[in-house]
Specification:
Radius of gyration of chain A: 22 Å
Structural class of chain A: alpha/beta
Largest sheet of chain A: 4 strands, parallel
Distance between the termini of chain A: 63 Å
Strand order of the largest sheet of chain A: 4-3-5-6
Mean pLDDT of chain A: 90
Oligomer: homodimer
Number of helices of chain A: 7
Low-confidence stretches of chain A: none
Strand content of chain A: 5-15%
Number of strands of chain A: 6
Helix content of chain A: 40-55%
Order of helices and strands of chain A: HHHEEEHEHEHEH
Largest interface: A-B, 59 and 59 residues
Chain lengths: ~200, ~200
């Protein structure tokens, strides 16, 4: 598709590099932006520029951060003895949204997946083990594995547990079972079977 | 959702302003950009900035353009006596892609649609009539109506025809009928019915 403007062509090509955005969607986005007030477009442009230049990853938990250490790791209200291991930044936010967790995080940056070529060295595993071994910045008493309940997540859980157990830290994992609000009739067999095997004392 | 970085939050909010992009998709896009080389993100940012500052609309046909007059209107290879009226810039590109048209265009910027609050004054109709009346920048012999084959498109066609006929210009519209490659069995009744009524002499 030949566009009658090189400025537009370049914008379409750049937008088409976004995941899930093809050339047709990119053109629709670009033409939408043409109709917007230019202040809004400049704001978007500037926000993206800062994304490239101003953002850091926390040196402790590898979550996104404005500074060297993220607000969660530097908060005095959080319990640094508990570290929750998650796949990515989205998962940190999902757990933060529950408002049920007051410990710290460790973002692996993925899960072990030989099919996708993701090995142990591609993940932030060594820094997790160092955090537990050295007790720096704070001694760790418990590591919660909160990885996806997939084959790759389970593989990573298994590997992490094997590495963490010898360090004398308590290793736990998030509960798996029937989702709250779900009918048993529509719950998949594996989840339902495990939720019966892993039943817990009644709580009111 | 509280993000642990204000830079990221601002980028997500700006991206969520795009059509069809909610906060979740905006977060996914922003986190994708975080993983990209910063040169690519800066390129995207810069392309969008130029979209706000460098783009113009052709003063003759209202299509997007780098300069005051678009490459189509200023091309000596195009026939300025034929003007094709289309709804938007995408339609110019769709017709250009057919490589079957050598005249000029006139982008209305929409079609008459009282439900959406789009009236005659919101569209580039007056400038089309002026183009035909004054013969500036070139005398117009034929106006091809190539608006969508919807109720709104038909209403606009009807209005334009009524305005154009008294000016002594030939008014035509694009052919409607069975799509090429379609089976008659799956063609909707209205299209098939009209294609029989509007049959044309056989051409080999």
């Amino acid at each position: 598709m030949d566009l009658p403007s090189t400025t537009l062509t370049q914008a379409v090509e750049a937008l088409a590099g976004l995941p899930g955005v093809g050339r047709r969607t990119a053109l629709r986005l670009a033409l939408h932006l043409l109709k917007e007030p230019s202040a809004e477009v400049l704001n978007l442009s500037e926000s993206l520029r800062r994304l490239a230049t101003d953002i850091h990853f926390c040196r402790i938990c590898h979550c996104v951060s404005d500074g060297e250490v993220c607000p969660i790791c530097s908060s005095p209200k959080r319990n640094p003895a508990i570290v929750c291991v998650v796949e990515n930044v989205q998962d940190v936010m999902a757990i933060e949204n529950t408002q049920q967790y007051t410990g710290l995080y460790h973002v692996l940056g993925g899960v072990i997946s030989p099919i996708d070529g993701v090995g142990i060295r591609d993940l932030n595993i060594e820094s997790l083990l160092q955090r537990v071994k050295t007790g720096d910045p704070a001694p760790v008493e418990e590591v919660i594995l909160a990885l996806p309940t997939t084959m790759e997540g389970d593989t990573t859980n298994f590997y992490l547990n094997k590495q963490l157990q010898p360090l004398g830290v308590k290793v736990t994992m998030i509960a798996r079972g029937v989702s709250i609000g779900d009918n048993l009739e529509y719950t998949d067999e594996i989840t339902l079977g495990r939720s019966i095997l892993n039943r817990v004392p009644f709580e009111a």
